[in-house]
Design goal:
The chain is built from seven helices and seven strands. The protein has about 200 residues and is α+β, with helices and mostly antiparallel strands. Strands 1-6-5-7 form a four-stranded antiparallel beta sheet, with helices on both faces. Strands 2-3-4 form a three-stranded antiparallel beta sheet, with helices on one face. Strand 2 and strand 3 form a beta hairpin.
């Protein structure tokens, strides 16, 4: 029995429940974008799980933008060339509602040279992070470092993650304490504060 009683929540009721937790679909996302992997009936059979997972994806057409800013299904095999880590930082800023207001984001990625770094301006200071190179695999500590900045900022939003249930893909969410409590009541997807896993 869920919080809605014996009856499983409809697809639309699930969307509304997640909206109350601060998880909304982006403008321009259609119902067909949400049903790319599962039908409404399948999403209603296992409430919230399939829907939450699809909200972490990008739409499967131009402009391939996030379905929802707050959730991110991140394939770790994504670091191929310059711009890759800039994209990661920009996606984290999108997830957190630009909580850190980072500026002048730039990076350097050369797999053959074995060199990668990302730089940005935060509170008028230049921050430089050197990153590990392992073929085209993302260095996960970039997320840890970003979350540490969030914690120190006191903005009230943190990064949560699941690194175990999706193979080479990690699932991330950005929540305030209140939004996380709301999400946890509804969700069949486990997301744990990144700091507790680092």
């Amino acid at each position: 029995m869920g919080i809605f009683g014996n009856k499983k929540p409809s697809f639309d009721r699930q969307l509304e429940g997640l909206k109350q937790c601060g998880i909304e679909i982006n403008n321009g996302v259609t119902s067909q974008d949400l049903l790319i992997f599962h039908s409404k009936e399948e999403m209603e059979e296992t409430p919230y799980k399939a829907l939450i997972e699809i909200l972490g994806h990008e739409i499967e057409r131009e402009p391939y933008s996030p379905i929802s800013n707050k959730l991110w299904m991140c394939d770790y095999e994504r670091i191929e060339d310059h711009g890759a880590y800039k994209d990661v930082i920009e996606r984290l800023e999108l997830m957190t509602g630009n909580a850190l207001s980072l500026e002048n984001i730039t990076d350097y990625v050369d797999i053959e040279e074995g060199k990668a770094w990302v730089e940005f301006t935060y509170k008028k200071k230049n921050i430089h992070w050197d990153l590990e190179v392992d073929d085209d695999w993302l260095d996960p500590y970039i997320l840890v470092k970003y979350d540490q900045l969030l914690k120190a900022s006191g903005k009230g939003v943190r990064i949560y993650s699941n690194h175990t249930d999706y193979g080479q893909v990690a699932f991330f969410g950005a929540f305030s304490d209140e939004a996380y409590r709301c999400f946890s009541k509804l969700s069949k997807v486990t997301l744990i504060l990144l700091e507790k896993q680092a």
